[in-house]
Amino acid sequence: MQGKLVTVFGASGFIGRNIVRELAKRGARVNAVCRDVEKAKFLKPMGAVGQVTPMRADVTDAAAISRAINGASAVINLVGILHPSGRNTFDAVQATAPGLIAKAAKDAGAEAMIHVSAIGADAHSSSHYARSKAAGEAAVRAAFPEATILRPSVLFGANDSFFNKFAALAQLSPVLPLIGGGKTKFQPVYVDDVADAIMASIAMPAAKGETYELGGPSVYTFRALMEMVLRETNRKAWLVDLPFWAASLKAMFLEILPSPPLTRDQVELLKTDNMVSAGSKTLADLGIEATSVEIIVPTYLDKFRPGGRYSTGRQPA
What we know:
Number of helices: 11
Mean pLDDT: 94
Helix content: 25-40%
CATH topology of the domain at 5-152: Rossmann fold
């Protein structure tokens, strides 16, 4: 990667910052594309002076995408949203934009295109999120057939939005809801393993045109993950079953918030297990040994313990 230019869309996000760091370590020059350049300035010290360039580009603007990709030998798309907001709809960001990025990469002569989608991407899903992810994959394949598509399960790591979210909730509430009874299965994957998978995909000719599903070494029910959160934060809370219909009703009101903690579409997603499907190519096929949740999660949830950095003072019952 020494001296080569790589364009990363979604560079300031959870996966993106890890990718920028790894690319810089390998001597690549990085166009770090994001929505807010000011907030992305923390990426610049990851490389030498001038090595990492934060830049803004609207992923629905083909001309802006082309400018960001010009001269790049590899293009990585990490852009995704958990809920729509204004003009940032699922269709615009997750269905249409990947195709625009892939076409621009192909037109620019990029050697590699990596598109990060999600386990559960399905054109026939009841979830708009999952359908848009499937549409994005199809658009990438049509524009850049040699692209590598990665589908991670729920991500974990120091700044994740899963374990941290529920640990913070456990500080404030004596109740944690188990949507659908907490029976949905997950196969959480370490963000650094996903970053390694992206780097391997760029380097391995055999990865071109392939799709990989990325999960950790173990499968857990949602209930088991919530029990882990409570155990690692030394908190006590009632785990209360919440039927899907009740969760959807609650989400209908929460959706009016600027950043809703739950949406009806997310409830639909929870009706399907989020784990690597049988016969899929996985991290192992990219030469990566999956990291266990039990090794990493305790290293960053301790701050939510009573007396910890984010403690609210509520003690275990």
